[in-house]
Amino acid sequence: MSSPIIQLDRTARVYRTGDVDVHAVRSVSLNIQRGEFVAIMGSSGSGKSTLMNILGCLDRATAGAYHLDGVNISSLTRRQLATLRNRKLGFVFQNFNLLSRTTALENVELPMFYRKPLMALRSQRQRAMQALERVGLADRLHHRPNQLSGGQQQRIAIARALVNEPELVLADEPTGNLDTRTSIDIMGLFQELNDSGITIVMVTHELDIASYCKRMVIMRDGNVISDTPTTHRRMADEERARLNEAERDASLDSPP
Amino acid sequence: MIPLLQALVLRPLLTAMIALRALRRNALRSILTALGIIIGVASVVAMVAVGNGARDKIQGEVAALGQNILLVFPGSKRSAGVNAGMGTAASITLQDTEAVRREVRDIAGLSPEVWTSAQAIASGRNWSTTISGVDPEYISVRDWPVARGAMFTERDVRSAAKVAVIGSKTANELFGAINPIGQTVRINNIPFIITGQLSSKGAGLGGDNQDDRLVLPYTTVMKRLTGEKTVKLLNIKITSADRMETAQAQIRALLRQRHRTPAADPDDFNILNQKEIAEKVASITGIITLMLGAIASMSLLVGGIGIMNIMLVSVTERTREIGIRMAVGAQGSAILLQFLIEAVTLSLLGGTLGVLGGMGTAHAIGKVANFQPVVTADSVILAFSVSCAIGIFFGFYPARKASQLDPIDALRYE
Q1: How far is CA A101 from CA A95, A153, B16, in A?
Q2: Considering only alpha carbons, which residue of chain B is nearest residue A82?
Q3: In this predicted model, what pLDDT tens digit does every residue of B244-303 receive, in sequence order?
Q4: Smallest Cα distance from A122 to chain B, Å
Q5: Cα gap A204→A190, rounded to integer Å
Q6: Measured between beta carbons, which residues in chain B are less than 8 angstroms from residue A56?
Q7: For residue A154, what are the contacts with CB-CB under 8 A and spacing of at least 6?
Q8: Which of A169, A253, B206, B242 reaches 20 to 30 Å from B148, CA-CA?
Q9: Is B325 on the interface with A (CB under 8 A)?
Q10: Is residue B68 part of a domain?
């Protein structure tokens, strides 16, 4: 078996606010292999978002070690972290975080703009178009985020996360701002991507969203309290069918 | 080679494209921000042009005195400690004039000058004008040829003849389109025959129109019009520029000797050397240009602070954008470059429009004022590079601030 893509060894993150130390993450040891689809769950304050920031190389652990794809993160400079984020990671956020007055295509091209060495502009465009096609937005290339629905915006964000062919996609509450049906669609997309071999780590506080993943890690007070394979894994196709049925029933019940 | 090309050319170019897009999105704000620089650069260019134009004009006037000229004025009249100013003392006589002509070497030409003002009447029109009394040599001393007709002669001077040479402006006022040569003009009821018309010379030092005058033999003016016995000015042309100092010293010694001035007393006359006038004028107009430029630079500085202000606002406003860019892998240097290019683009835009505005302003001033402002290449280049430097200087702090944002904080920023 190859080395895990994520290796956390007693990782901790302490914030110092005034005289009080806040232990957001106390001591987390966790290995995630290539091809996994992991949900990190927990209530607010459990430390899951802090852990996500550390995994995303946006924040640094104050103790313990974090190896991403075999590289020890704590020894890297700000500059090297930026390069790492650019080449190995893709981010999907709850509030999408798209550049608002910029077209879908340009949003997706953004990570390639900071890629070194630069690709030819034509191949950048081509890759961005392919990524948008992959998330089902081939016909919305020149729309701006504010002209699109929440689900479509999140698809742009996913395309952006995929465009540099990262080792790992990190999603922070990706369905938090979406309705049930759109959430199912987005989770279906993640399942497809995972089936094609992409490693996904997702933070969520909703059990039914987490159950689309293959593995659930539950955190409380900065520690991992449970780490199990998902039992009764949900599949987006089945959920969609069930939802359709429920809606049909509801409309039958209602008086004509 | 390829990575170097990318780092030095392609990436800044793409960054500039992003910066331009951001500026276009806030077009009104961008223009208003650039306005500070536009006004600053425009005023620098226009003010320096005005200074240069004034200098050129005054230097032209100094040159219009003729070449290698010394002007000798009577000294100031002092009574009971009150100094009435240059030329008020009646200290230079016709005998002094003759003595200078006789005894000083290197004199190419000499003409005494007296003047008064009077009402000139001709062909039913009248016009108040300056009456100058000079020697026939005057036109060669002052490099001021007669346009038509002829200058009066030495004989006219000796006989105090009732003849006159007319300035082009006066000719126009009294005779209109009629050829004034051979016509009669009456001054104080004395008829004078016009023998010639001077070529046009334009405004003199001090702004008076030199073409508005009647030029008579000095003897005629002194005997028939004013009754004065002394001259108000000696125009002396020296043979060459390098003889000016010597000649000036000789004239000074001669006049002191003739006036029996004790060694300890100051001169009772003043000698102006054209070269000295030119130098003085150059230094004064230089100071004026510098001062105008300095005042205008203040507005350039204010414009720069305006850019910094807007860039700071822009960085705050776009904190999330910066966070997104950092999350997808933008390094601090890329963010720095982006905002720096925005600031420099603003200031260069301001610089370009400002130079155009300054040229326009200078042109407009030239239409109103009686001189032509001169926009020089170096003032344009200077204003342009200063505005670019201002963009870098005032853009750097906001850009650096943007580049040092923490990506997590920036992403969370609402």
Answers
A1: 16, 13, 17
A2: B329
A3: 889 999 999 999 888 888 888 888 888 888 878 888 888 888 888 888 888 888 888 888
A4: 14
A5: 14
A6: 327
A7: A92, A96, A174, A175, A177, A178, A182, A186
A8: B206
A9: yes
A10: no
Mean pLDDT calculated for residue range B32-61: 87
B401 and B301 co-located in one domain: yes
Same domain, residue pair B47 and B148: no
Q: Under CATH, which number does the domain A6-253 receive?
A: 3.40.50.300
pLDDT at B79 over 60: no
Tokens of A42: 């927990």
Q: Is B25 at the interface with chain A, CB within 8 A?
A: yes
Determine which of A15, A68, A81, A85 to mutate to test the interface with B (most B C-beta atoms within 10 Å).
A85
Residue found by looking up tokens 């000649």 in the block = B247
* One domain for residues B292 and B395: yes
Q: Where are the domains of chain A?
A: 6-253
Nearest chain A residue to B329, by CA? A86
pLDDT score, position A255: 60
Burial level of B75, CB count in 10 A (0-12/13-18/19+)?
buried
Please indicate, yes or no, if residue B66 is contained in any of the structural domains.
no
Indicate the SS3 state at residue A99. coil
Residue of A99, A121, A123, A162 to mutate for B, most B C-beta atoms under 10 A? A99
Instruction: Give the relative orientation of helices B244-258 and B94-103 as an angle to the nearest 10 degrees.
Output: 140
**B5 contacts chain A (CB < 8 A):** no
pTM above 0.90, yes or no: no
Each residue's pLDDT tens digit, B336-379? 999 999 898 888 889 999 999 999 999 999 888 878 888 888 88
Residue of B nearest to A108 (CA): B328
What's the token pair of residue A51?
A: 């852990």
Domain boundary residue among B172, B202, B234?
B234
Give the domain range for residue B119: 110-234
- Position A256 scores a pLDDT of 55
